């Protein structure tokens, strides 16, 4: 065997350090490339969402046109060979469509064009929804009329409106077109939510605040619209609903007339808490293809003549998680209605907390208002008093 005469090469410290630096640099470049790739992907997905928003808006305007330039135009035409039923005359025909024609004209002439501009200028999208916040409340008005519209259409869907549909050559029935504004106002929030998500991933921080504001607008407006649809289904209340102030909360509660929970057998009522009144109603009818249940008025208690008992002794039902849901009681303090009271039970502990929070808040507001009227100087001093 030949002896090994060649020296064994050992890398010096400088060479090893250079390799480590090179490796670290390569690693940083890889992370940077990955981040850039993710941002590019997010920007591309953002563009898809904007295009989907614009394309679906065009489809929506086409659907609105079928109503405005189809049904409405025919029903206004005195020479139309499909005679309008007698009971649709005297303004009932206008209640079928509400303010849909105004919605159509605004989307056609303004909103669609503004959205189309956002394809090339996506930074304008967030401010656009904020700028038109008040205009979008047209949908609240539309939804408030929707229950009345549903009822009228259901009475003629197989006769008069079917004849008009065939004459117009439409595939969709009128009720399918009338639900489009309700669906569209909900869709905006979903698309804006996706847009915000991809904007955040693309690190386009300058646009995130305006998109956050747009998202807020499109949470508030659909909720108000949905609330108004439920309020529009309330029948038999003698007062003017629009005079009851803001709708604070509504939903089903198990209720029993009286103040005792000892033998509580609650019946599910639909309860509406407004700033001025709490209204108890009963759902009648079932949801069908053309109609929804209506709420028949049972009773009401004026908020400024109401007291709250947060815990009533009695039988407690279990909520979905297995816990007990306490009863609470609202009663009238009106001397003309001394026995008017309802023991109530929410479906879950969380809903109970929400009802109590809103009831406490509105009662405190009433107390503050009364104090301000009766002792304005003392009330002002209390407001300006420094907290401890």
UniProtKB/TrEMBL annotation:
Gene Ontology annotations for the cellular component aspect, listed alphabetically: cytoplasm; extrinsic component of membrane
Region (Disordered) location: 1-36
InterPro entries: DBL_dom_sf (IPR035899), DH_dom (IPR000219), GDS_CDC24_CS (IPR001331), PH-like_dom_sf (IPR011993), PH_domain (IPR001849), RhoGEF_Guanine_NuclExch_SF (IPR051336), SOS1_NGEF_PH (IPR055251)
GO molecular function annotation: guanyl-nucleotide exchange factor activity
Every DH domain range: 45-228
One example of a Gene Ontology biological process annotation: intracellular signal transduction
Presence of the UniProt keyword Isomerase in the record: no
Keywords: Cytoplasm, Guanine-nucleotide releasing factor
Gene3D superfamilies: Dbl homology (DH) domain (1.20.900.10), Pleckstrin-homology domain (PH domain)/Phosphotyrosine-binding domain (PTB) (2.30.29.30)
Record's keyword annotation contains tRNA processing: no
Organism superkingdom: Eukaryota
Amino acid composition bias (Basic and acidic residues), ranges on this chain: 16-27
SUPFAM superfamilies, per the entry: DBL homology domain (DH-domain), PH domain-like
Compartments where located: Cytoplasm
Domain PH: 240-364
Pfam families the UniProt entry points to: RhoGEF (PF00621), SOS1_NGEF_PH (PF22697)
PANTHER family linked: RHO GUANINE EXCHANGE FACTOR-RELATED, TRIO, ISOFORM A
Protein name according to UniProt: DH domain-containing protein
Taxon lineage: Eukaryota, Metazoa, Ecdysozoa, Arthropoda, Hexapoda
